[in-house]
């Protein structure tokens, strides 16, 4: 697929560019820049991340799955119970309180299934596993992509761990590969439409810890702090986009920022093209309660005290496990579960819910 070049006339929000190779060497200046990106906006570009080839193979798998007849894909649909693994049909989720349906299809592959392959542990075969092309590429493409993405995200989390003053490896304990989690790889297709305003994925914060996103076309927008205008993030060749989700924001007492974002169709020169994107989401193990690690870090404890003094109502103890937090958000964005605007409100994360 030939992607038209990015339009000059569309304003974009700049992100810091972080070099993964420098992070690997624990370069102090690069760590400071990462910290600035993670605490101010919660989004940054990541270059030299070693995942481009595998990401390309994941992109190639996209049409193999999405071109199957809808009836075939629906055999693997994620359902309405709060799970996400498998296929998500376009129109399955709301994009706003008014119940407007989304326009994107997803394939979500559980990190637990990719790592356990040739066994499937989260999706029991045969009838509810994954569409055949995904199974055929599990060994050669999906599992290596998952393993490499986990490596990138865990290095970044390790850096946050140390900056937050947590004991060595503390954040890693929440993300051990052996514990089941909702961590997953996602291939996203948004159908071509000339309406560049039609919301594809509604405004949200990400549910988990860290998202590692590959964009080839425009359409991702962020709502920067203090702004009321959605701003495009320009896709840059060979640069991934990373962002913080709710779990890391809560663990850190809000120091790490889980920022609102959404997806609309590609703009201007790229309009009316199918939009494909790819994400790996690292999320905490299912059993961990999402709460600020106040007793374990002075920095976090001070941040929570300051938030309390500021009266923003956030006490950073959700009382929910990662599994419950994720399940609640998933269930309540499903159109099939919608009763009214309250269902949308119940699907919100740190941007709306007062965590007490
Ligand atoms: O497709 C994109 O650019 C972003 C997707 C996204 O925000 C998500 O799936 O959570
Ligand atoms: Fe997202």
UniProtKB/TrEMBL annotation:
- Spell out the Gene3D superfamilies in the cross-references: B-lactam Antibiotic, Isopenicillin N Synthase, Chain (2.60.120.330)
Q: Which domain of life is it from?
A: Eukaryota
A Pfam family of the record is 2OG-FeII_Oxy
Q: InterPro entries in the record, alphabetically? A: DIOX_N (IPR026992), IPNS-like_FE2OG_OXY (IPR044861), IPNS-like_sf (IPR027443), Iron_ascorbate_oxido_reductase (IPR050231), Oxoglu/Fe-dep_dioxygenase_dom (IPR005123)
Similarity-based family: Belongs to the iron/ascorbate-dependent oxidoreductase family.
Keyword Aminoacyl-tRNA synthetase carried by entry: no
- Origin organism is Gymnopilus junonius (Spectacular rustgill mushroom)
Which UniProt keywords are present, listed alphabetically? Iron, Metal-binding, Oxidoreductase
Q: What's the name of the protein?
A: Fe2OG dioxygenase domain-containing protein
Q: Which residues form the Fe2OG dioxygenase domain?
A: 181-284
GO molecular function term, any single one: metal ion binding
């Amino acid at each position: 697929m030939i992607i038209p070049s990015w339009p000059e006339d569309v304003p974009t929000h700049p992100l810091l560019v972080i070099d993964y190779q420098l992070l690997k060497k624990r370069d102090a200046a690069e760590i400071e820049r990462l910290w600035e990106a993670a605490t101010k906006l919660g989004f940054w570009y990541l270059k030299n991340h070693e995942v481009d080839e595998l990401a390309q193979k994941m992109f190639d798998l996209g049409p193999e799955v999405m071109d199957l007849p809808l009836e075939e894909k629906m055999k693997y649909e994620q359902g309405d119970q709060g799970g996400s693994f498998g296929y998500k049909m376009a129109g399955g989720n709301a994009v706003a309180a008014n119940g407007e349906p989304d326009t994107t299809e997803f394939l979500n592959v559980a990190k637990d299934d990719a790592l356990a392959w040739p066994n499937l542990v989260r999706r029991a075969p045969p009838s509810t596993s994954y569409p055949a092309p995904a199974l055929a590429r599990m060994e050669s493409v999906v599992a290596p992509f998952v393993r490499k993405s986990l490596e990138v995200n865990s290095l970044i989390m390790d850096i946050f761990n140390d900056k937050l003053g947590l004991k060595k490896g503390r954040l890693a304990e929440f993300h051990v590969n052996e514990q089941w989690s909702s961590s997953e790889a996602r291939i996203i297709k948004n159908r071509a439409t000339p309406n560049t305003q039609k919301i594809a994925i509604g405004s949200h914060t990400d549910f988990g810890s860290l998202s590692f996103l590959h964009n080839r076309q425009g359409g991702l927008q962020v709502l920067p702090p203090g702004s009321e205008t959605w701003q495009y993030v320009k896709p840059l060749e060979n640069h991934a986009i990373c962002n913080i989700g709710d779990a890391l924001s809560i663990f850190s007492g809000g120091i790490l920022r889980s920022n609102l974002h959404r997806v609309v169709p590609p703009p201007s020169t790229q309009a009316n093209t199918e939009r494909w994107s790819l994400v790996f989401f690292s999320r905490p193990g299912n059993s961990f309660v999402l709460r600020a690690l106040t007793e374990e870090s002075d920095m976090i404890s001070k941040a929570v005290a300051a938030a309390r003094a500021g009266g923003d109502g956030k006490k950073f103890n959700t009382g929910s496990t990662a599994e419950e937090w994720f399940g609640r958000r998933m269930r309540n964005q499903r159109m099939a579960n919608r009763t009214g605007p309250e269902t949308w409100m119940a699907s919100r994360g740190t941007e709306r819910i007062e965590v007490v």
